[in-house]
Design goal:
With 206 residues, the protein is mainly α. It contains eight helices and two strands. The chain has a domain at 17-156: Four Helix Bundle (Hemerythrin (Met), subunit A). Helix content is 52%, strand content 4%. It has a two-stranded antiparallel sheet with strand order 1-2. This is TIGR03086 family metal-binding protein. InterPro entries: CHP03086 (IPR017520), DinB/YfiT-like (IPR034660), Maleyloyr_isom (IPR017517), MDMPI_metal-binding (IPR024344). It comes from Streptomyces rectiviolaceus. Residues 27-147 form the Mycothiol-dependent maleylpyruvate isomerase metal-binding domain.
């Protein structure tokens, strides 16, 4: 949540390029990018922990999510004004290149001077851009695990991103389950580590 996000600005009054939230968002993008680049040519149709989503569906979803960011954060667009521009297949014949382009655009939009201080018009109402950035960061982290499991990559997530995501998502995890964006929480195994607790909170069977 916006109130849970890091707020220390390490760049001083001239800008927010070194804001800790931006660093975590960039790290989450890099994490997911690493997994996208690891997808084998024969793995795009493989199933994922996300019900009814193949690897291609998952990457397409995250690609569309990144494509929304410049419109919402930089341009001040609304859901209605963007319409169905980012519906359907956003990957085309080169899924990796499409992801790289979308992720770079998302990163740069959030890094523009003053971007985190803006208000974005989301489906559930006007929202602080830093809250939106925190949500997007957590989404990338959790789906990086989904993609890792689907393609047989390393499922261990960076400790700092896991800790951030737990702080970010805990206050509204139940609402996400009600919205259908994530499955209902499952009980984590006894003695579970923080990563497992995060994944269990979002309905993942680890």
């Amino acid at each position: 949540m916006a109130g849970m996000a890091d707020t220390t600005d390490t760049t001083g009054p001239s800008g927010r390029a070194g804001h800790p939230l931006l660093a975590r968002h960039a790290a989450a993008l890099e994490l997911f990018t690493d997994r996208v680049h690891a997808v084998g040519a024969d793995q795009w149709d493989a199933p994922t922990p996300c019900t009814d989503w193949s690897v291609r569906d998952l990457v397409n979803h995250l690609t569309a999510e990144q494509l929304w960011v410049p419109s919402l954060v930089r341009d001040g667009a609304t859901i209605d004004s963007v319409g169905d521009s980012f519906d359907g297949d956003m990957l085309g014949p080169d899924p990796v290149a499409s992801w790289d382009t979308a992720s770079a655009a998302s990163r740069e939009a959030f890094r523009e001077p003053g971007a985190l201080d803006r208000t974005v018009h989301l489906s559930f109402g006007d929202t602080a851009a830093d809250f939106y950035c925190g949500q997007m960061t957590t989404d990338l982290v959790v789906h990086a695990w989904d993609l890792s499991r689907a393609i047989g990559a390393d499922e261990r997530l960076p400790d700092d991103l896991v800790a951030f995501s737990v702080r970010e998502i805990t206050p509204y995890a139940a609402d996400l389950a009600k919205s259908g964006l994530f499955a209902p929480a499952v009980e984590p195994p006894q003695g579970a580590d923080v990563q497992t607790k995060l994944l269990s909170l979002l309905g993942r069977e680890v």
